[in-house]
Amino acid sequence: MFEEILKAVACGIILALTIGPVFFVLIETSVTKGFRAALSFDLGVIFADILFILVAFFSTTKILEKVKDDPNLLIFGGALLFIYGLISFVKTSKSFRKIIREHRSVTIKKNYFELFFKGFLLNFINFGVLGVWIATIVLAESVTSSPNGVVIFLSTVLLTYLATDLLKIFLAKKLKSKLTPRRVFNMKKIVSLIILFIGLGLVVQGFFPSGMAKVQKKIEKTTQYN
User: Which domain holds residue 157?
Assistant: First the structure.
């Protein structure tokens, strides 16, 4: 059991450090709005993860295989991320220009429920996350033999995920004192663009799944040779 928990901890750390839309928004929220705001956002993310786990856990194998390999979900989720990033970029740019024009100070809003919903939505519309949890459940079933092993494994993954995110939030918060209003808005715009391009990448992957698979294989071969 101890070895299984260690594997679950390692899995949770890897998932928490995976570079994606949530990673960047979590850091940006921590830096600009503080610890409690970032925690509210992160709890929304984890709530979406729990829903994905429940869907994956209680669905049949055939449904999971169909959902996991359906390019339409990548296209739909990628399009939503693209739109989210575009709207966020435009709103941030307009807000900054308005503040500069009117010579007003920057007011950082902290609606914790809204941040929770934002974290939930941003994670939930990324259907690639469902594939990740399906793979995690398969891993849990392969490494554990105890009756409640899968539940313990997944619970450990989620707790480790949260603990790692708390560490990221704490470290990112240290940067807050170095931020000027211009830097805050530049960070928000950069994060919006990152989400936009991740969404675009998912759409391309959905339209050209075979081409993306070939690219991934070439990258793997290059990595092996190096």
Answer: 2-225
| Contact residues for 84 (Cβ-Cβ < 8 A; gap 6+) | 122, 125, 195, 199
Neighbours of 46 (CB within 10 A): 17
pLDDT recorded at residue 209? 64
Total number of domains in the chain: 1
pLDDT 10s digits, 126-173: 777 877 888 788 778 777 777 678 888 899 999 999 999 999 888 887
The pTM of this model reads: 0.72
The rounded distance, in Å, linking the Cα atoms of 13 and 24 is: 16
Kindly list the distances between the CA atom of residue 122 and the CA atoms of 3, 73, 85, 116, in Å, as whole numbers in the listed order. 33, 15, 10, 10
Angle at 25 between CA 23 and CA 203, to 5 degrees: 75
- The one-letter amino acid code at 191 reads V
